[in-house]
Amino acid sequence: MPLVAGVDSSTQSTKIQIRDLDTGSLVATGRAPHPIVTPPISQQDPAAWWSAFESAWAQATSEVSPRDIAAISIAGQQHGMVPCNGAGVPIHPAVLWNDTTAAPDAEWLLQQLPGGAAGWANACGSVPVAAFTISKLSWLHRTEPEVWGRMERICLPHDWLTHRLTGEWVTDRGDVSGTGYWSPTSESYRWDLLDIIDSNANWADMLPRVLDPVEPAGVWEIDGHAISVGPGTGDNMAAAVGVGILPGDVVISVGTSGTIFTVADTPTADPSGAVAGFADANGRFLPLVCTLNAAKVTDAVARLMGVDATEFDQLALTGPAGAGGVGVVPYFDGERTPNLPDATGSITGLRSDVSREHVARATVEGVVGGLLAGREALAAHARIDTDRVWLVGGGARSVAYRTVLGDMAQADVMTSPVDEIVALGACVQAAATFTRTDPDDVRAAWGSLKA
Fold first, then answer.
1. Which residues contact 89 (CB under 8 A, 6 or more apart)?
2. Is the pLDDT of residue 1 over 80?
3. Do 187 and 100 fall within a single domain?
4. What is the span of the domain harbouring residue 44?
5. Would you call the peptide bond into 439 cis, given omega within 30 degrees of 0 as the criterion?
6. Are residues 273 and 307 part of one domain?
7. Percent of the chain beyond pLDDT 90?
8. 235 belongs to the catalytic site
9. Catalytic pick among 99, 175, 235, 313
10. Tally of domains in the chain
């Protein structure tokens, strides 16, 4: 029975799924944590990702023979900057998507291109904010000249892990479209945007080759067995593959951050910066809105209340719609949409009769309200279905999130019985790459999966 493996290397942990190549049935899993990060400074040693991968891989392959695994693919947290030497050894901790210290650099970059925000949107589909790789590169150039002078390779988290498997310097169109220096419209790097940071840098030698959607990245040789390695992609792109969404479908992902996205047949360019005009992993496009604060907000308030997730969920469900006038502004760690990197959260509308139920309900409503504002922005740039919405991520397991989202969106909330949608999407991509089949066809052939 040939198998495929899908890896989700997220901010918090590495998750691995191993599935049957033909049916998609889940046969083994593994999981290991990453170091905890807290913005505004959010950095991780990439070696910790590899250690987590090895641990999760050992767990997963304790249940199956690695020799039965035909292909593997890695989905990773988007935007992270991994500067390396020529051998692929990181020379600085990876700066993650939710590190906001590059906010001044994003503002500076906006001023360097004719047309400002509109010029950037037309050039690369998105307006740079602190999260984007190009802003982090500017930050590194400005603050760490000694590191900058030693840098020979720049990659994204999933690129670095793929390199550890294959020795190749490659990426995919989905993840690279979130850097701020690759154009989904022209399907090419924008050297002129990188030259704004350093016109003397040899960018062509530093950046990975962009693979086609089902083009193999290389081969992972392990214990005398060769495993085909897919191109990998960003976590949001893998989630879209895992759900199997088509143009018009809307996905809201509630994890550490919140994302709202759809797939489209044509690229988008939003000069307001609210909608990022990404590419997807299948050859289409993935307009997306991201908020920095989602489930971690409800986690933080639950911790303050001294309750676990289950009890917090029940408190939020017991609280009345509108939370008795209590409101929670969920910008606990700054915010990306709207672009408020220095913002903090607040609780308003408190009266002497306030209850824990009011605060819990207001917290969920605050997070959901931000996500639905993102859906409204998305609707201005892509065709979307407003009658239903897919809810994925850890928040999909919360009855309170599902209920409040359905009430506030006035839409049917669809969920998947598969917990780890990103790892599932990576499995689909691995299978598609191995068989040279369209990922949509693989996902459709696998049908309704139960785990």
1. none
2. no
3. yes
4. 3-235+421-446
5. no
6. yes
7. 92
8. yes
9. 235
10. 2
